[in-house]
What we know:
2 copies of one chain form a homodimer.
Chain A: H1 4-13, E1 23-24, E2 30-31, E3 40-41, H2 44-58, H3 63-66, H4 72-84, E4 91-93, H5 97-115, E5 121-125, H6 130-143, E6 146-150, H7 155-158, E7 167-173, H8 185-194, E8 198-202, E9 221-224, E10 239-242, H9 244-247, H10 286-303, H11 307-329, E11 336-337, E12 349-353, H12 358-367, E13 370-371, E14 373-375, E15 385-389, H13 397-413
Parallel strand pairs in A: 2-13, 5-6, 5-7, 7-8, 8-9
Antiparallel strand pairs in A: 1-3, 4-10, 9-10, 11-12, 12-15, 14-15
Helix pairs in contact in A: 1-13, 2-10, 4-10, 5-6, 10-11, 11-13
Amino acid sequence: MINLEDCRQLDQQDPLRPLREQFSLPPGLIYLDGNSLGALPQRTAARVAQVVNEEWGQGLIASWNRAGWFELPQRLGDRIAALIGAGPGEVVATDSTSINLYKVLSAALRIATSQQPERLRVLSERSNFPTDLYIAEGLCREHGGTLELLEPEQLAAALEPRAAQDVAVLMLTHVNYRTGAMHDMAALTAAAHRAGVLTVWDLAHSAGAVPVSVKADQADFAVGCGYKYLNGGPGAPAFVWVHPKHVERFRQPLSGWWGHAAPFAFTPDYQPAAAIARYLCGTQPIISLAALGCGLDTFSAAEALGGMTALRRKSLALSDLFISLVHERCAGHGLTLVTPREHLRRGSQVCLARDQGGYAIIQALIARGVVGDFRAGDGAQLADILRFGLAPLYVGFEDVWHAVEHLRQVLASGEWQRPEFNQMKAVS
Amino acid sequence: MINLEDCRQLDQQDPLRPLREQFSLPPGLIYLDGNSLGALPQRTAARVAQVVNEEWGQGLIASWNRAGWFELPQRLGDRIAALIGAGPGEVVATDSTSINLYKVLSAALRIATSQQPERLRVLSERSNFPTDLYIAEGLCREHGGTLELLEPEQLAAALEPRAAQDVAVLMLTHVNYRTGAMHDMAALTAAAHRAGVLTVWDLAHSAGAVPVSVKADQADFAVGCGYKYLNGGPGAPAFVWVHPKHVERFRQPLSGWWGHAAPFAFTPDYQPAAAIARYLCGTQPIISLAALGCGLDTFSAAEALGGMTALRRKSLALSDLFISLVHERCAGHGLTLVTPREHLRRGSQVCLARDQGGYAIIQALIARGVVGDFRAGDGAQLADILRFGLAPLYVGFEDVWHAVEHLRQVLASGEWQRPEFNQMKAVS
Lengths: 428, 428
């Protein structure tokens, strides 16, 4: 049996422990929702104030050049590239994940059908994050394609070359938002390529959470989120990566001036920029981009301590601990672990299913200062889920102890059944 | 002849004079580039710090509901609606102007061709802002349409019903970014409608600068910019309006979860939200949106002083003064006024053409603390342009005097010919 003292020792032995000092979290709060909205870095407020007061207020339009605003998507993109196994000049930070997905899925469909017009199916996962499915559904409607939703265990068969002759794209979120299950990017990409299928990966729950190697794994396209594990702030701009072998094969449809080869030449005809810059579209929200830069800074300090490899080691130790403690201390309360126990299949969150009461349990935990979140099921295939994100930059082992202890108390006492925890509000 | 004392009296008599106290501008700077990037409102820094430290840092994910983050696009949209003659619930603040244009032009093309498949031409103006043309070019390529670029004086003939039988959309920027010339939205829309043509208006240089009445003028679609006259900060989110009669006729192609009827139901299939909310796509950059809110606040104080009508009166008085002073004091230096003298055809900026030296003249003015900007010509139809934006919220009559006096001195002394003003840098 693990006890509190064990957890405290794990924190003391944790070489990444000092990294949490980079964040400003409410005292006493145990924040296990960095998979939804990353915590605030200490430096963000001062940097944002500098952008507002100095760069905007004093520098005014000169700051587009002098403060480097115009190149921010590329500069931040290069830093994100280092976290996902991409090269410099291959990533831009821009727009939202949904919009970036529209760009790359348009490109993937165009590239696939230009070679084999019969390839009109897009394969994805039924429990993929809905906005990914919505974007794909819209593009399929536009292009006369179909979106087919599979269970994870059906993917291998669907990618058999004979079964996949009319498949254009495999579009997956690398780490599932509901279960924390992680796909094998290398294996699925290889299977897809054997069948002539391109791959589009959503790294929303991966970038900054688990090591990713888009290039070594031969992925074709990737997008991801700036405001979850990257700590970029609410609604921070997202990112987009395209394998260099594809990047100049297609003019993505959102052909705005920031993706032009010479944006300030103001020519009336569109000439796409070289490389990933052509995946930019309009002017970007600089204040929010600057905050994303501070989120990425929180990974710089991790570099000297082993970078994503060390963060991954800690993340797995945290989720192993969470799973063990729930197993030891919360048995008999109807919780089912839905996150894979295998390290190779696990992201950086632990998800528990429960037939009912999930929403109220999360509310009761929040009232006790433990922030996880709830994702409702569909009453059929998808269960109600309690999610606990374990961001290794700022979550500690003692946090996990207390979180599970509060969970135990909430369940054992029946506290979650109180009326105030059962009034459903809009869920974020 | 107007003199400095006259200008000072105009400032003293100006009922809108106190409004400039809302802004934080560098002391002594005469900022005539609010048509490119609006000035910093005094309140923005504190509000942004509140969003960062309290709403994000303390409130964390609860702020999506508790701080109203999720409804910001609608709340700000309602305030923008009041500035452009739209109704509540008809505008959202979101994404970039280019992306919003993609949404509405997709809708306009779809609506037009669904009724008359032969309508495949999009008419626009050769000197429209390039990103508008790039987006239209991309969409036309996708949909098999053609983009036709006209001179302003050709528009009337092109909209004759017999000439426009295969025209789907008239896409114009209401106030031209290079000339400051303003189209007659009501007349052109009426002409377009007589020919069965839908209208898409870019209000980037109109919203907050001139009175706009999209609904009274029967426009079909409009987009606009948050960071010019609306003072929302660098790259602030843009806005989109769709006439209620069209808004639910089409699922715009960027069908992300924020435009879903029930975004937090996480259903796998897309059901567009009612009304303008379906023109949302992905998660929005909240810090930048909050700054846009402060920009819009600067118009609230103007409400009690006559609102856009009073701002327009002052804007015209400022540009009349600018034009008169240039005429009186800068004659013989090769400047040509390209902004229309007629009030009904003028936006809120004054543009001067010059065969050569425009870039250097602007650089020399900036060195003297007068910020305008330069837009290069194409060496053929389009001349080199010196632009001076006259944002009536914070530009005064004495500012105009000094700006023109500096311009006179720069020209008369030949100062602009100094080498340091002639080294072309990237232009923003």
